Amino acid sequence: MRVQLNESNKSMKTQKSKIQDQSKKIVESLPYKIKDIALAKLGRDKIDISEKEMPGLMELRKKYSRSKPLKGFRLTGSLHMTIETAILIETLKDLGADVRWASCNIFSTQDEAAAAIAKTKTPVFAWKGETLEEYWDCTLQALTFKNNLGPNLIVDDGGDATLLIHKGFELENYFNEHKKLPKITSNIEEEIVIEKLLRKVHKLNPNHWHNIVPEIIGVSEETTTGVARLQQMVEDATLLFPAFNVNDAATKSKFDNLYGCRESLADGIKRSTEIMLAGKTVVVCGYGDVGKGSAQSMKSYGCKVIVTEIDPICALQAAMEGFEVRRLEDVLKRGNIFVTTTGNKDIITLKHMKKMKDQAIVCNIGHFDNEIQVDALNKSDAKRDQIKPQLDRYTFKNGKQIFLLAEGRLVNLGCATGHASFVMSTSFSNQVLAQLFLAKNKPAPGIYDLPRKLDEEVARIHLKHLDADLTKLSKSQAEYIGVNVNGPYKKDEYRY
Ligand SMILES: NC(=O)c1ccc[n+]([C@@H]2O[C@H](COP(=O)([O-])OP(=O)(O)OC[C@H]3O[C@@H](n4cnc5c(N)ncnc54)[C@H](O)[C@@H]3O)[C@@H](O)[C@H]2O)c1
C-alpha cells in the first residue's frame, strides 16, 4: 500500500501546487469557531489549576520545549475539547507543532477550554451541543490548514478524522474510476452527513484528499474503538498512513479506561440526574477496562451491580469480583440504571427499553452512541421531553417512563467533564510520545505500539506526583528474573 502511494505521490506532488492554486477554499477562513470567547478567562484559570495535576505533560514540556521536535509539522487534533485537552494542545504547541483542533463528540466540549485555546490564536472548532453537520464541518476545518493543506500529524480519538480522510480518498478513487460519484445509499443519519460533506469538498476540489494524504506522516489513536477501526483497515488493506496505538499502552487503557471511568461515570450520572446511587441496582454491559472501572465505581457507592458479558474470561473475572453475571434480557425489570461499556452496537435495544421498569436510567460510556438504539427510541411511539440538555425523559404509551442521558453518547463527557486531569496526564503523555515517535521515525503504514520502557517512564513520572516510593531492583535480582535493572520489567505480552 505504502509503495503504491509513494509512486503515485510523485506525479501527484508535481501537480499539487497547480491543483491547489486552482482550487477554491475547502473551508471558510475562520480564526476559530466556539461558543463564547468571553469564557477564556474561566478556561485559563481552570487550565492553570489542572496543569498542576498533569505532571506527565509538564515534564514533557520541560524536556522538549527548547529543541521543539514538532516544529514544522502541521498537526490536527480530533479529541474531546476539554481543559485537559487544552493542556495537551499547549504542550504540542510548546514542542513546536502548528495545531488545529476539533472535538470528537458533539457534547464533550468544555466551552471555557475552547475559549481559552481560541484566545491564544490556535484555530479551534468546537462547542458543546453541535449538530452532526456542525460536528463534521468542524472536523473538516481542523483538517484544513492554510492553502487547503492537510495535516502531517493527527491526534485522533475514535478515528473520525482518520475516517473522513479515508472516505474522501475512497470517493475520489470511485470518481476517477467511474467518472461519476456514487449515490448515497446509507440510511444512517451521520453517514449521510459525512457523504454530503465529502461531495461538497469534491465539488470544490476533486483531488483534495489525494493531495493531502501523501503528506500525512501518521495518526496516534486514543481509544479502544478507534484502534478497532484501524485494525479493521489493516485487515482490509485500506489504511493509508501509519497509526500509533496509544490506547493499548498500559499507562493509558489500564488507567484512563479503568480509573478514569471509575470516577467520571458517577460524575456524569449524578450531575445529570442528581440521583442517590446507594441501594440502586446497576446493570453494567461489558466488563472490559471501562466496564471494570464502571462496575467498581457503582459498587463503591453501595449499588448492587449486575454485569453482562459475551467473553467468558471477562465474565469469570466479574463473577470472581463478586458481581452477579446475567443476560440483559433477564434483568430488565431489576435494573434502576443501565450502563453500556462495550464499544459494540445494539447492546440496549428499543425492545429492552420498553421492558425496563418505570424510571430506569439508561446511559452509555463507550465511544459511540450506537450501543443504545437511540434512533429507534426516537422514532418509536414514546414521547420525548427534554428535562435539560443531555437529560431526556421518554414516556411510553403505557405511561412507563425511562431517562436517557447525553442522547446515548458518552455520559461522562456529555453530562460531566470527562476524566480528571491526573489520569488524562498519563493518557496524553502517551499521545505526545506517539507524536514524537511518528515525527521522528516516519514509519511505514501499519499499527505501532509504545515501547514498554516508555510506558514505564510515563508511570514513573506520575508516581512522583503521588508521593510513592518505588523499590529499586538490585543487579543480582535483575539477573535472577532476567530483566535489566533499569527496565523494561515485563515482557511485551504481560497484561497488567
Ligand atoms: N468514556 C470514556 O471516557 C472512555 C474511556 C476509554 C474508553 N472508552 C470507550 O469505551 C468502550 C470500551 O472500552 P474498553 O477499553 O473497556 O474495551 P474492552 O474491549 O476492554 O471492553 C469491552 C467489553 O465489552 C464486551 N462486549 C462486547 N460485546 C458485548 C455484548 N454484546 N454484551 C456484553 N458485553 C459485550 C467485550 O467482551 C469486552 O470485554 C470503547 O468504545 C472505548 O473506546 C470510553
Distance between the termini: 34 Å
Give the tally of structural domains: 2
Bound molecules: nicotinamide-adenine-dinucleotide
The computed structural class is alpha/beta
Count the DSSP helices. 20
- Determine and state the CATH class of the largest domain: Alpha Beta
Helices and strands in order:
Blueprint lengths: L1 H21 L17 H12 L3 H10 L9 E5 L4 H12 L3 E5 L8 H9 L4 E2 L6 H12 L9 E4 L3 H19 L10 H16 L3 H5 L5 E4 L2 H12 L7 E3 L4 H24 L7 E5 L3 H12 L3 E5 L3 H9 L3 E2 L2 H4 L5 E4 L9 H6 L4 E5 L9 H6 L3 E6 L2 E5 L5 E5 L5 H4 L6 H21 L5 E3 L2 H14 L9 H7 L15
Describe the structure.
The protein has 496 residues and is of the alpha/beta class. The chain folds into 2 domains: 2-157 and 159-221, Rossmann fold; 262-414, NAD(P)-binding Rossmann-like Domain (Rossmann fold), CATH 3.40.50.720. It contains 20 helices and 15 strands. The strands form 2 sheets. An 8-stranded mixed β-sheet has the order 9-8-7-10-11-14-13-12, covered by helices on one side. A 7-stranded parallel β-sheet has the order 3-2-1-4-5-6-15, with helices on both faces. Helix 2 crosses helix 4. The protein is globular, with a radius of gyration of 23 Å. The two termini are 34 Å apart. Residues 1-21 have low confidence and may be disordered.
